[in-house]
From TrEMBL:
Pfam (any one): tRNA-synt_1b
Family annotation (SUPFAM superfamilies): Nucleotidylyl transferase (SSF52374)
Chain segments annotated as coiled-coil in the UniProt record: none
Keyword presence, Aminoacyl-tRNA synthetase: yes
One GO molecular-function entry: ATP binding
UniProt keyword annotation of Protein biosynthesis present: yes
InterPro entries reported in the protein's UniProt record: aa-tRNA-synth_Ic, Rossmann-like_a/b/a_fold
Name assigned to this protein: tRNA synthetases class I (W and Y)
The species this protein was found in: Paenibacillus tianmuensis
GO biological process: tRNA aminoacylation for protein translation
Length: 51
């Protein structure tokens, strides 16, 4: 049985070197070893806590 990995990102703008070094490079490695699922959060909610 293949192990699974679930990870995600919040889409906040254009890709930059920090994304590659901090996240994307590692995920390429993980997908070779595991069944990988990636969530992309593109819906942002502003919650007003005080009125």
């Amino acid at each position: 049985m293949t192990e699974r990995v679930l990870t995600g990102d919040r889409v906040t703008g254009k890709l930059h070197l920090g994304h590659y070094v901090g996240s994307l490079k590692n995920r390429v490695t993980l997908q070779e070893q595991y069944e990988t699922f990636v969530l992309l959060e593109a819906y942002h909610i502003n919650i007003r806590t005080t009125y």
